[in-house]
Specification:
This protein is an alpha+beta fold. The protein has eight helices and 16 strands. The two termini are 26 Å apart. About 2% of the residues have low confidence. It is found in: Nucleus.
């Protein structure tokens, strides 16, 4: 059915026909059987049900009316929300953007002046790079190969720890990293350097970062209590760490999320009344405690679905024969996603999500611009 035919039917007052219940169920739900799920594909093209006279084309007004985001749990570290009315490709696009395309600041260059610990220089630099830096990356510029390190594209930290107590071990943590707002303090060594030349460091800061309004009263710090190395008596680490802006697809240390995932909303339906001993057995079979027992007025007991969101679709409730698959129907809603974001600490999870939406919007605008 073409758009003109649909508009003509609407103008004539003819209601758009609907799919039969069994086809509508397969279109909107993934059916989880004991052996494998079925109806896993997402039917989006407009002519899918043309023979039944049903218009399946994607319309912006329908999307705008059906789409919603509902936050279920939020903290500084993580957030869980429901995203309803979107195609799986949109949910996956947001997930991939969160993992690989949102910029953060991470340690890229490590200048080691002294390292007598058992941790090799390369391993030490790698561990430092994975420490999350608690600063808004939107306040900084990218550092290209032709740029020099300055106060707008580089953050400098200093680490100097030494175990001076005999018979003891010193644990060096990320708390020992000290922010140097004026830039590098290590001097470059050069054969051409004369006694009258001005000492040159590894950065070219024109002003102190703590004097900038963005950081006034808000010092840059790192995620605390992360173990860097353990030092024995007499062992020492002295280094400078330079953090720059990057994205996760370049290296995982720039990924702003510890993990990010989604799952389709589980739907558990009892297709018939389950009473008595079978109700007790059904509750015992479920490891996720989805079912509860309801006491009826006549002294009987009946199984009910109390916590469908807790269902992990392990299918234990429909195994072991005895026609359990005919009594319990396990489904997933194709356009309802339970989304979870765990931030590394650089930015709150709600900010990460809004920034991911902006990046997806920019991608769509570039595609539209290229096609027009």
């Amino acid at each position: 059915m073409s758009d003109s035919d649909s508009e003509a039917m609407a103008d004539a007052g003819v209601e758009n026909p609907k799919l039969p219940p069994h086809l509508e169920l397969r279109r909107t739900r993934v059916l989880c059987k004991a052996d494998a799920p079925t109806s896993t594909d997402t039917v989006q093209y407009s002519g899918a049900y043309a023979s039944l006279g049903v218009d399946n084309s994607l319309r912006f007004d329908d999307f705008r009316n059906n789409f919603r985001v509902q936050v279920n749990r939020i903290s500084h570290e993580d957030m869980e929300f429901d995203m309803v009315g979107v195609d799986p490709s949109i949910a996956n696009a947001l997930r991939r953007i969160l993992l690989a395309e949102l910029p953060t600041m991470a340690i890229e260059k490590v200048l080691i002046a002294n390292n007598t610990s058992v941790v090799q220089d390369e391993v030490l630099a790698h561990r430092l790079g994975l420490i999350p830096i608690k600063v808004d990356p939107r306040l900084f510029d990218y550092l290209s190969e032709n740029d020099t390190s300055n106060e707008k594209n580089t953050i400098v930290f200093k680490l100097h720890v030494r175990c001076a107590e005999r018979g003891q071990r010193l644990t060096a943590t990320s708390n020992e990293l000290t922010w140097l707002p004026k830039g590098s303090e290590l001097l470059k060594t050069s054969e051409s350097l004369t006694s009258t030349s001005k000492p040159e460091t590894y950065t070219s800061f024109t002003c102190s970062q703590d004097s900038m309004p963005e950081f006034a009263g808000n010092p840059i710090s790192v995620y605390p209590d992360i173990i860097i190395a353990k030092l024995g008596f007499g062992q020492e680490i002295e280094l400078e760490a330079h953090a720059v802006k990057g994205v996760g697809k370049t290296h995982a240390k720039w990924s702003p999320v510890a993990t990010c995932w989604y799952r389709m909303l589980p739907e558990v339906v009892l297709t018939e009344e389950i009473e008595g001993k079978k109700a007790e057995l059904l509750k015992q079979k479920c490891p996720a405690n989805v079912f509860e027992i309801e006491d009826l007025a006549d002294g009987k007991k009946r199984a009910t679905v109390a916590r469908p969101r807790a269902c992990t679709l392990c299918r234990e409730c429909i195994r072991d024969g005895d026609d359990w698959e005919k009594r319990v129907s396990l489904r997933r809603v194709k356009d309802h996603f339970i989304f979870t974001i765990e931030s590394t600490g650089a930015l709150p999870p709600e900010v990460l999500f809004t920034e991911a939406v902006k990046i997806l919007e920019d991608k769509c605008e570039r595609v539209i611009s290229d096609l027009s």
